[in-house]
Amino acid sequence: MCGIVGYLGEGQAYPILIKGLKRLEYRGYDSAGLAIHNGESVRFYKKKGKVAKLEGIAEDAPKEGSLGIAHTRWATHGEPNDVNSHPHVSQSGRFFIVHNGIIENFSSIKEALKMRGYTFQSETDTEVLVNLIEDIFEEGNMSLERAVQAALNQVNGAYAICVIDLHNPDMMVVARIGSPLVIGLDNGNYFVASDATPFLEYTKQAVYLEDGEMAVLHRGSKLQVFTIASNVEVEPYVHQLTMDIADIEKGGYEHFMLKEIYEQPRSIHDTLRGRLLAEEGKIVMRGITEYQHKFQNADRIIIVACGTSWHAGLVAEYIFEELVRIPVEVEYASEFRYRNPVINERDVIIAISQSGETADTLAAIKLAKSKGATIFGVCNIVGSSIARESHAGAFTHAGPEIGVASTKAFTAQVAVLTLMALKIGQEKGNLPKTQYLEYLHALSQIPQQIERVLACNDENMMKIAHEYADVSNFLYLGRGVNFPVALEGALKLKEISYIHAEGYPAAEMKHGPIALIDENMPVVIIAQQNANYEKVVSNAQEVKARKGKIIAIVNPGDEEMRKLADHCIEVEKTYELLSPLLTTIPLQLLSYHIAVLRGCNVDQPRNLAKSVTVE
Ligand code: AGP
Q1: In this structure, which long-range contacts are made by residues 139-143, counting pairs with CB atoms below 8 Å and at least 24 apart in sequence?
Q2: Is the CB of 405 under 6 A from ligand 1?
Q3: Would residue 568 show up in a list of annotated catalytic residues for this protein?
């Protein structure tokens, strides 16, 4: 939920920290701060607001130094203000910390420290942690790394931390449980961050700390990694990152979200590449092959996810039940993990997560795993916690998704889930060979079809966006596999334009929502000419009869809907089960343009963060 950056090397820390924070602002931007050690003293600056505010106060201030830590915050404990911003400093002024996560037992620790004479400036759990480290350090007369380790063995919760010592300008201690932390290695220079984007331009050698690990960085020395619980040294695995800096820049687009919408032909192509061999009539997915028996013999498949990823799971429910003929349940991870679900070893759990760090989804699979279920992860970030917690998985190769509103990750998730269903269904014998081959061919056409569907980003789209930019409510209707697309379209609109929007199964209109319809209510209706087309037309007539404004997502040549709708946006035809990969595109663009017209911050909507790593 927050972003942390650290640097220990030969260069100046400040520019690396500031640029790194900007790369991580999508993780939270309530406040920002940094601390830099210049060899004699530590100067630290922190400010409510975005990184640009921090830059403003640091502009003319001294900031030399080659050791530093930095933080951009999404507030959990204590409102967004200067004093609650990170870094936090221990009472003596010796230790500085930045922290991403939540210390759940901070109140009891705070009371104990108060009894020992500590006072606190902020409301944060992080300030408690840095004083606990100091208290143990002073009492135990031990090294900083041992004091950090002892403190972390007393806390419950999730954390990724960087700690520096006023008395030692040549070291940094980092540690993580539940929140991500990756270390960049560059010939003795060390970078630390919540993900690799802050140091990608400097090095592609990265160590993803495992849950329950800490590392001690000494200037110019070899990286040392230990287990927090038992202080056992472990050999770190050095990843060679494949991301490029261009992937995380805007590339000429006004917003990351628009760039990522336009990247979907490539991100789907990359996601299918090496897996969909349409010419050979094959799907190659090692994770599925290794766990084919688990899928074949599963009593049911349970999909756990949050937000947009949950919508991808709903799409997958239709696809799996049609092609694999195994019961599928789709669960909000946050509900699943607390309702004491009935799980056994014949269950397969599919966890869907772009970030691979969503706390509720991670907790849900840990619960299911503890009850013997098989966990299959569909994530976008290599080395992420959910990916590592899963028995097997398939990555969506969508590339870094910087915009908080998920777009290309969603369609990449649907593409992976479709591949999975086709492969399992075919190997289970449910899918006749001809139908299987037809699906493979149709799926191979999707990247080019998305390319053509993007042409809907035209004056017609802009006219619709202008006409409805100031409304207060929107309804989205869809049937079958496009019902989850209606939900996704509504979520896109509300999370970036702040307009209230609801998605509904089109047939549900008669059971209440139709009372909302009047001349002020725009209704997006996904009308694809497949199984339930006539019924969708009837729903459109019901809306029309009550003067609702209809924005229809139609196939080319659909004259019937054109007569009914106030606006039409064309989407090429494909198999019904594949249509969400196309019908989602205009809904992403519509929400984007409306949000821009409303002057909203499209890439960093208010109150949101890209990765919800707290519960
Ligand atoms: C989607 O636009 C939102 N940013 C949000 O709902 C997101 O999908 C959700 O938080 C799940 O994130 P994850 O895919 O990283 O687990």
Answers
A1: none
A2: yes
A3: no
